[in-house]
Amino acid sequence: MSQQITAIWRSSPEAYGPRKHRRPCEYSAYVPDRLTAHSLDLSAELAADVADAERALATFSGTSKHNLEQLARFLLRAEAVASSKIEGLQVNSRRLARHEARLAAGIPDRDATADAVLGNVRAMDLAVHSVAAAESLEVQHLLDIHAALMEHSDQPDIAGQLRTTQNWIGGNDFNPCQAAFVPPPPEYVVELLQDLCLFINRDDLPGTIQAGLAHAQFETIHPFGDGNGRTGRALIHVVLRRRGLATAFVPPISLALATRASAYVDGLSGFRYSGEAGSPAALAGIRDWLDVFLTATRRATKDAEALQSRLEILEADWRDAVRPRANSTADKLLSELIANPVITADDTMRLTGASRSAAFAAVDGLVSAGVLRAVGDQRRYRLLEAPSVFDVLTDYERASATESGNTKEEQPKRSVPYRQPKA
Fold it and tell me: What pTM was estimated for this model as a whole?
C-alpha cells in the first residue's frame, strides 16, 4: 500500500541558508506501491487509446522510409535535446551540433550546458541501442544510463550512484518541508528499483502502458541526486524498443510532454495516490496519467511523420540543386547531412570513405550550390553547416509546441527557437 511517511528535518543551526530554513520542520515523503502489485484492468476507453497509440507507432515503424538510419539518429538527438530542455538546459540544435563538431575536430570550445546535453545524447544512445537489447533489465542498467548522462556534467561524482540522502522537488534548497513532492527515503530506493525492473521485464500488458507506468514510477522513486527526469524519459524508449513498438526510431515524446507541461506534472501527481493498489483513487490516478502519456505518444508519432516528410523534401531539393553523380562523394555526403548537419572535411572523409582531395571537392561543390556554408572564420579546421536542416528543425520544434501544429494560428506554449531571417 502506498503511504506518506512523516519525518522531522533536523537541520543544523550552522547550516547555510536563512534562519527560517535552519529550524527543524516536519515533512512527508511518499512511498509508492510496487508496480507489480497492480492488476491494471483497463477501461474500454483507455484500451481504445492504447490501441490508437500502438497502431500509430507500428504504422510509422513499418513504413518504407528513405535513409531510415539518418532519420533515426536525427530523432534520437531531437528527443535528447527536448528532454534536456524540460530540465532547464536550453541549448538549440545548431549550438549543440557546432559544439560537438568543434570537439571532434580538436577545437577548444567551452560550453558546459552543451556538454550536459551531449551527455543526454550519449545516455539516450546507450538506452536504445544497448540497454534495450539486454535479455533482462537490471538495476545496473539504470545506473549505466545515469552514468553516461552525468559523466561530463558538473556533478560527475554522482554518475551512476544511487542517492543516500533524502531529496525533494520544489520548495527551497535547504529543507523538504515546503517541497512540492518528496520522494521515498533512500532506504526504499533499491527495493523499488528492483520491482520496477521486474515490471519492465514483463510482456503480459501493452507496451505503451508499460512504458508510461515505468516512467511515472521511476520519477516517483527519484533514485539519483540529479538527472532523474532525463534518465526516466530515456527509460520510456527502453521499454518501447524492448516491446517492439519503436525498433527503428525514437518518437520525440519529450517534445510532446513539454508542450503539455502542466498536464505532465498533474498526471505524475495524480499517479501518486494514497491507499491500496486497487482502490478507486489508484485506478483514477493511473488512468489520468496514462491519458497524458498516450496523448503525448500519439502526438510525437504524428510530429515525427511530418518531420520525415520535410526532411525527405529537403534532401530532394539538395539533389536538384547539386545534381550529383551516383555514388560520388557529393552523392554520399548528401545522404549523411541530415544526421550530421555540421561537418569538417575530415568528417566528409569519414562519412563517405573519400580521399582528402575528393572530400574537399565535394564540400566546395555543396557550398557553391548553397547546401553548405562556412561557420565563422576558422582556417585550420573549417566548419561547415547545412543551415536548411536547422530551419526544418526550428519549424518542427515550433509546430510541436502548439496543440494544433500550426504556428500561424496558435502561439507556441513553451520556449522555442526563433526562425532565422532569410539571407
Answer: 0.90
